[in-house]
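Sample intake sheet
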Amino acid sequence: MKEFDAIIIGSGHNGLITACYLAKAGMKVGVLERRDTIGGAVCTETMFQSQQNPNGFRIDVGSSVHIMIHQTGIIEELGLTDYGLEYIEMDPFMSYPLPDKKGVIHFHKDLDLTLESISRVAPEDVENYRNFIDFWARINKGVLKAFMVPPSGKNIFMEMAKGQIRDGSMFKKGEQLDGLQKILGSYGSVVKNAFSSPYMQAALIWFAAQSGPLPDQSATGDFVGWQSMLHQSGAKHPKGGSGMLTQAMKRFIEAHGGSVIADSPVKSIDIEDGIAKGVTTLNDEYYKAGLIVSNAHVQTTMLKLVERKHLDDSLFTKVKNIQVGNGFGMVIRCAVEELPDYIAAPNDPIIHNGMQLLAPSVEYMNSAIGDYVKGNPPEEPAVLAMTFSKIDPEVAKDGKHTLFAWAQWHPYELANGKSWEDIREREAEKIYGVVEKYAPNMKGKLIDWYIQSPLDIERKHGLLRGNVMHVEMNFDQMFMFRPVPELSNYETPIKNLYLSSASCHPGGGVFGAAGYNAAHVILKRRKKLFGGFR
C-alpha cells in the first residue's frame, strides 16, 4: 500500500493543475494515469519514425492551441516556465483564406492589424468588427471572473444586472436590452446580425463552433463574443508540442515531493461510511489518501468508480442523464512533405503562424450540420487546419512538416448501423481532401497520418462519446448547472471526494479553470477544518 495526502485520478491538465496547487500548499500528491503517457488530452507523442525521418514527428494527440489558460494567471502563479515550458506566439492566431478568389483575412492579436486585414476583403465590416470587439470585451471582463470562481447558485442574470447597476461596465447607456439579447441569442444569429460579409460570417461562426453547440443554440452568443479575449491574450503553442504544458506540471509536482504514475488505471474508489479513503487500480495496487480528486469524466467517476450503493437515486439518475451528446468531431494528424500553399493566399508568409479556417460559407456548414443531425458524417466537412512546424521546428526536425486537420459534426453514434471501424479512413480522406481543394499542392504530399474518429477519441482519452468538452456546453449545463447542480461546487456527497475535470464549471478547452477552482475549494475547506493544509 502507498499513501499520499491527496490522490488525483487522471493526469489531464485540469487534474495536474489541481495537483500543482495542492503540492504547492504542502500536500504530498500522487497522480494516477491510466495510459502509459501522461497529460490526458494535452499530450504530445513522437510518431512516424523512419529511415528517411529518424527523428519522427511530434504529434499532439489532443488539444493543440492554448488560448484561455493565458487569461487565467495559472502559468505565472505556478512559475511553469521554470519547469521547461516555453510558449511560441501564434500571430495571426487564425486566418480565413477565401474559398472563391484570392484574399485572406488575418486575425491578429493586435486589433488594428486585424482591422487592416479585414479592410482588404470586407471593408463594410471594419467598424462592425471594432464595435463587436468593444462590446464583448466589456462583457467578458465579468464572464472571466465568473469562470475563475466556483459557480454561484444565485440567478446569473440577477448578478449581471447588479454588476451593471454597480459600475455600468457591461452595457453602455441605452444598449442594455440589445446587449442582453445578444447574450441570450445564438452565436449564429449574433454573427449574422453583426456582420455583412459572408466571409466574416463564415470565419467567425466556424471558430465559435469549436465550443460545441450548434450555431442556432440559444444563449451561446458569447462563444463568438470570446473572440474579444483573443485580442488580449492571443493564442500560443508550446515549443515541442501541446504536451509540454502537462510535462512542466509533472516536473512541478515532482519538485514539490509528489509523484505522477503512468500505467495505473483506477478501478474503484474505496468508500467507507460515506468517506473516500483511497483507490484501487486495475492491477490491484491500493493507494490510501485522505483526499481523492477525480479528473475523469463525471459519469466515469460517479457511475463506475463510485459504486451505485453510495449514491441516492436522484443523483444517480441526474448524472446518468447528463447530456454528453452524439460526438463532436474528428481529426487527422498528418506528417507531410510541405506546407499547404493556399490558392487564396499564395506564398503567404504568415498564414501558417496560426489556425487556418477552411469553411467556405455558412450554408456549407449548415449542410454539414444537417448530415450530422441525421446521424451521418458530413459529405463536405468544415476543417480547421494547424501547421505548427512552421513556427516550431522542434515538431518536425527532418525538414518535413506537420498538418493537423480538425473537422466537426461527426456523430459518435452513426445512422443505418454504420461503424466507425469501417468508415474512419474514408472520412479521414474527406478531411484531407478539403485541404487539397484549398491548397492543391498537398496532393500526394501525405507521408503518414494518425486518425482520431469520435470512437478513437473515446478509447484513447476516456472522453465519452467522443465529446472533447466532456459534456455538452449548452446553457443548461453551464455555470451552476454543470455537471449537475449537486456537483457544481466540485464537491460530491462522498466526503473527501472532489471533481476537477472539464465536466465541471466552466467547461472544456485548454483553460485550467476547473482544476484551479477545484484546488481552491479544497484548500479553503481544509483550512477551515484543520487550520492548515496538511
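Comment: Residues 126-147 form the longest helix (22 residues). The radius of gyration is 23 Å.
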